């Protein structure tokens, strides 16, 4: 077995550059067959071809297949048109899932960006800035599942295990069950997500903050503006493109949530989100059609967000 | 251009080298030698921690004799993991099957190997009650063997605490009900219940409700129910839910109240029996619970002295619910065949029995193998019962089973919502039995 892995490693290390070189040389040879004036126009397309093929196979084809599956029945044998969607819309569980997803979008994004901005702005003025930022960024290094396990222990009902319940016991408050009551449990799960992603928001906003011309701020301060005015009238407007990019990225992450909910409650107690609903339909109910419908709905909700993200990104690039 | 030519040469040579790579190491299992089997086997089951150790000890003699490399994976999320792997065309060689319901789904899909090809059913019939063989069959295919079985619906109690409180074992339903009331009136909490079990949370409550259905409404209603022909909102099933909720959703009757019930892991549900002063007096659970008592309280739990059981009495009807761990084979390899043949033997079954917390369906396992009188009594009850029914929720399709789990969690939290909960279960029933 080790011999096999060693051989694979050798093949990859030599073979991948080899194929790249061969391909580049191959395209040059093909271009050499064509008239001189055509070459510059055609060359980029030939170079892009492998990338486009990969995208087609791994992105475009599955998306189309999912769309097709969503119009078919449980076992993908017969066409049922929009029945899967109509069935979904008729289920109370689906609307609760949508409700939870909206909660995630609003609170997760809002609070992650808010705290990220807060830390970025405050840390900017302190000497030990790097230390603070590193500390806040650390949770990003662990997986969703690991974070869920950690917080699962924090939320544990038994105060001898659960940090939160032990903490409130010190204040004389009776122990609470954090993960079984809706909507409190969704907020608790969102807190886990925020804990993980604040670092991301903070880092990007911090970079954006430093990109603001300090002369502008000095001029404003000399003109008599106080810190709040400087923040709200100058920093925030200049930061808005960055805020938009961070915000839309985190919205997409919120929509993709699955691990946290699955590990901490399994989707029980009304905490279902689109990710867990999809999983339930596909692997428990074995209903390929309904699962595909959920996936398509998720896709449709993400598309506008992605478009905003791309437009903003392009605007930022153009402004350079 | 010499440099170009050199690069092309290197590239072509390395591609040739890649193409001519020898095929992956050939499976030793294919070498038909007469000696030990060798090779490897992948096993997926739901056992973790102590149960995992016991299972590995159970197969150790086979592993030693055959020098097979065992890849064991244990997960409480067996339903999902097994389904995912089977559908992803990467099934384990042998695996625990969550229940007869899922076993039937896999078998009808053609994923399970028919074991009668290499297991001698006639020889098995001599050692196994026909019920256990029948439970492993799907449409004339024999696809599941039992590693161990259990009786459900035993009421565990602490004899020391019972004596101190002046309580007696009830012999009928009225006595049982009366006992619970008596404990409550004395200012104590009768029940200890724990429902948490990861992705399978809620399953102990389904055992409760099945016991009520069997004893209140009888085996025919029970059978119609798991086959999807008895509506969940029918009075019989509703009565069972309400009987359970009367105790589980009331802080006066269950230790820690409903909140504790939902958050407490099932393995710790009976811990309150062993505290001093007792935090609870009764715990409803299957026969394998003794294993958990011994693990959680190795110094305090002594069979017969600090923990014992009585069977849940008959109400309108008498009956016994059982459960069992089914094992099935997904890949027909020599190692898998050999392991399955080993697992049905009395020798293999005896190993788990000796370690406690298991009953063997193989009657050739001597009763002296059972570690204590408690286990022996359980084995006798199993062998002498007239009406025996396998755990209903395990026989339901996976979707129905999981909906049942979620429903009972919801019910314990919101007993007033019973109508809606039962109606939702009916909706799932219409869908889940569709195929």
Write a concise keyword list for the protein shown above:
heterodimer; A: 320 residues; mainly alpha; MetI-like fold; B: 435 residues; alpha/beta; D-Maltodextrin-Binding Protein, domain 2; 6-stranded mixed sheet; 3-stranded antiparallel sheet; 11 strands; 48% helix
The secondary structure category of chain B is: alpha/beta
The CATH fourth-level homologous superfamily of the largest domain in chain B:
Periplasmic binding protein-like II
The largest pleated sheet of chain B is described as: 6 strands, mixed
Number of helices of chain B: 18
Query: Which architecture name of the largest domain in chain A does CATH use?
Result: Orthogonal Bundle
Q: What is the share of helical residues of chain A? A: over 70%
- Based on Cα principal axes, name the global outline of chain A: globular
Rounded mean pLDDT score of chain A? 89
How large is the radius of gyration of chain B? 25 Å
> Looking at CATH, which topology of the largest domain in chain A would you report?
MetI-like fold
The percent range for strand residues of chain A is under 5%
Number of helices of chain A: 13
Protein model, in words:
The complex is a heterodimer of chains A (about 325) and B (about 425). By secondary structure, chain A is mainly alpha-helical. Helices cover about 75% and strands about 0% of the residues of chain A. In chain A, helix 1 crosses helix 2 (about 40-70) and helix 6 packs across helix 8. Chain B is α/β, with parallel strands linked by helices and about 425 residues long. Chain B folds into two domains: about 40-150 and about 325-380, Periplasmic binding protein-like II (D-Maltodextrin-Binding Protein, domain 2, 3-Layer(aba) Sandwich), CATH 3.40.190.10; about 155-320 and about 390-430, Periplasmic binding protein-like II (D-Maltodextrin-Binding Protein, domain 2, 3-Layer(aba) Sandwich). In chain B, the strands form three sheets. In chain B, strands 1, 2, 3, 6, 10 and 11 form a six-stranded mixed beta sheet that branches. In chain B, strands 8-7-9 form a three-stranded antiparallel beta sheet. The radius of gyration of chain B is 25 Å and the shape is globular. The chains are: A mainly alpha (about 325), B alpha/beta (about 425). The interface between A and B is large, with 31 and 41 residues.
């Amino acid at each position: 077995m080790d011999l096999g892995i060693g051989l694979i490693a050798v093949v990859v290390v030599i073979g991948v550059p080899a194929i790249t070189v061969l391909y580049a040389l191959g395209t040059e040879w093909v271009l050499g067959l064509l008239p001189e004036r055509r070459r510059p126009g055609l060359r980029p397309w030939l170079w892009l071809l492998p990338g486009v093929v990969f995208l087609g196979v791994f992105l475009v084809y599955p998306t189309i297949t999912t769309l097709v599956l969503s119009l078919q029945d449980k076992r993908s044998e017969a066409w049922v048109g929009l029945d899967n969607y109509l069935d979904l819309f008729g289920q109370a569980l689906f609307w609760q899932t949508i409700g939870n997803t909206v909660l995630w979008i609003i609170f997760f994004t809002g609070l992650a960006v808010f705290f990220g901005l807060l830390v970025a702005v405050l840390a900017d003025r302190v000497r030990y800035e790097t230390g603070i930022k590193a500390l806040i960024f650390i949770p990003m290094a662990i997986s969703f599942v690991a974070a869920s396990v950690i917080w699962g222990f924090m939320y544990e009902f038994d105060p001898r295990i659960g940090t939160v319940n032990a903490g409130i016991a010190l204040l004389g408050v009776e122990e609470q069950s954090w993960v079984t009551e809706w909507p409190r449990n969704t907020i608790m799960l969102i807190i886990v997500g925020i804990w993980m992603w604040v670092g991301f928001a903070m880092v990007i906003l911090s970079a954006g903050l430093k990109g603001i011309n300090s002369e502008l701020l000095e001029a404003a301060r000399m003109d008599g503006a106080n810190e709040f005015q400087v923040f709200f009238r100058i920093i925030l407007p200049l930061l808005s493109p960055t805020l938009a990019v961070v915000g839309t990225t985190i919205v997409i992450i919120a929509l993709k949530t699955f691990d946290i909910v699955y590990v901490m409650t399994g989707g029980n107690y009304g905490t279902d989100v689109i990710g867990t609903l999809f999983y339930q339909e596909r692997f428990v109910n074995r209903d390929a059609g309904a699962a595909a419908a959920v996936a398509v709905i998720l896709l449709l909700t993400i598309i506008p967000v992605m478009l905003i993200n791309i437009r903003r990104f392009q605007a930022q690039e153009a402004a350079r | 251009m010499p440099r170009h030519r050199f690069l092309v040469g290197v590239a072509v040579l390395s591609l040739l080298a890649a193409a001519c790579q020898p095929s992956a190491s050939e499976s030793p299992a294919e070498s038909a030698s007469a000696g030990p089997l060798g090779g490897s086997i992948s096993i997926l089951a739901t056992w973790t921690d102590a149960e995992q150790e016991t299972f590995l000890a159970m197969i150790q003699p086979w592993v030693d004799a055959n020098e097979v490399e065992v890849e064991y994976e244990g997960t409480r999320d067996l339903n999902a993991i097994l389904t995912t792997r089977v559908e992803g065309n990467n099934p384990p060689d042998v695996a625990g099957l969550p229940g007869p319901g899922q076993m039937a789904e896999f078998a009808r899909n053609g994923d399970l190997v028919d074991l009668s090809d290499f297991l001698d059913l006639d020889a098995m019939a001599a050692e196994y009650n026909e019920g256990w063989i029948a439970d492993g069959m799907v449409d004339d295919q024999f696809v599941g063997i039992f590693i161990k079985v259990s009786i459900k619906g035993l009421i565990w109690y602490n004899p020391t605490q019972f004596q101190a409180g002046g309580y007696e074992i009830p012999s009928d339903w009225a006595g049982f009900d009366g006992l619970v009331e008596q404990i409550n009136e004395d200012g104590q909490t009768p029940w200890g219940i724990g429902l948490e079990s990861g992705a399978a949370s809620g399953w102990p409550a389904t055992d409760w409700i099945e016991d009520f259905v069997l004893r209140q409404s009888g085996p025919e209603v029970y059978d119609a129910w798991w086959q999807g022909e008895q509506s969940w909102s029918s009075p019989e099933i509703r009565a069972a839910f309400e009987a359970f909720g009367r105790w589980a959703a009331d802080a006066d009757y269950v230790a820690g109240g409903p909140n504790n019930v939902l958050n407490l892991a099932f393995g710790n549900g009976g811990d309150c029996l062993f505290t001093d002063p007792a935090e609870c007096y009764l715990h409803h659970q299957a026969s394998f619970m003794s294993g958990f008592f011994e693990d959680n309280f190795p110094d305090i739990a002594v069979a017969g002295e600090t923990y014992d059981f009585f069977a849940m009495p008959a109400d309108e009807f008498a009956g016994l619910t059982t459960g069992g761990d089914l094992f099935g084979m997904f890949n027909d390899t020599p190692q898998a065949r050999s392991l399955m043949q080993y697992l049905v033997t009395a020798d293999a079954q005896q190993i788990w029995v000796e370690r406690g917390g298991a009953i063997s369906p193989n009657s050739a396992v001597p009763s002296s193998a059972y570690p204590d009188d408690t286990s022996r009594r359980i084995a006798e009850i199993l062998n002498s019962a007239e009406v025996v029914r396998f755990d209903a929720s395990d026989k339901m399709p996976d979707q129905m089973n999981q909906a049942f789990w979620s429903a009972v969690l919801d019910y314990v939290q919101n007993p007033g919502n019973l109508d809606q909960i039962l109606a939702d279960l009916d909706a799932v029933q219409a869908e889940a039995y569709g195929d």
